[in-house]
Amino acid sequence: xxxxxxxxxxxxxxxxxxxxxxxxxxxxxxxxxxxxxxxxxxxxxxxxxxxxxxxxxxxxxxxxxxxxxxxxxxxxxxxxxxxxxxxxxxxxxxxxxxxxxxxxxxxxxxxxxxxxxxxxxxxxxxxxxxxxxxxxxxxxxxxxxxxxxxxxxxxxxxxxxxxxxxxxxxxxxxxxxxxxxxxxxxxxxxxxxxxxxxxxxxxxxxxxxxxxxxxxxxxxxxxxxxxxxxxxxxxxxxxxxxxxxxxxxxxxxxxxxxxxxxxxxxxxxxxxxxxxxxxxxxxxxxxxxxxxxxxxxxxxxxxxxxxxxxxxxxxxxxxxxxxxxxxxxxxx
Length: 332
Hints:
- With 332 residues, the chain is an alpha+beta fold.
- It has 10 helices and 9 strands.
- Helices cover 48% and strands 17% of the residues.
- The strands form 3 sheets. Strands 2, 5, 6, 7 and 8 form a 5-stranded antiparallel β-sheet that branches. Strands 1-9 form a two-stranded antiparallel sheet. A two-stranded antiparallel sheet has the order 3-4.
- α2 (26-40) crosses α4, α5 crosses α7 and α7 crosses α10.
- The two termini are 34 Å apart.
């Protein structure tokens, strides 16, 4: 039984949400390229040629190299060791800024087996009061030097990333569209949130506890699946949040469940009031968009056979489009 929803139609006619504008910064594409390059960069031991033909014959440390090291800080040369500065077998990428400013640069030009000694003065705004502006003598032993082998932006490499063979310029355009798409999605979520808040203000409804309880369980299972997909589990997450299942459902999930259920009821009522339906053309365009995400011919063929009137997924698409049209009418 769907709860009755009453909406003030005069106030409803006055509701309008200004669409949040979305812009693109070319630097975002370059930053994304840099992230991908970093992710797919692998390393070869210095002084050797890689099995893939990469020349890593240079033995001296250069910016970008990965250096495995031990280091220990002292009050001064020959002075007492400072326990907090001891680091063992740490893989440090030179130029990454993981260590104190100036530390990584001191290693450039050295090689495997070297023991490098130098003074470093910590920044005055260093996060630890113990080391702010403090001068420390470091003794660093280099155990391994590796040279970075970054991927080449060939059409073959890009095809592995996105399944489409194109050049770097084409890939940059793809990234631009992905970035804009993600920004538009987030902006849309924000605009819809503002709209639903406004709609709740002019609506009267009473949601039964059983309906809320079902939505709570639905969100709980959804979050569990998302965590498991990332290699975690809900027990670990609850321990991290310092709560239990009952507490988490009550304080975190239930408010979200109430928002979702109220939003669905209000939008359903407006859809009925205004007789909003998705057209066959709109549904087919959406289905084509869904199918376009898949490359394998056999998958595409199965989807075309399945997504027809009467199929549950087809009906879900039809309903989702109708709700989207309801929302679009309020966002200018």
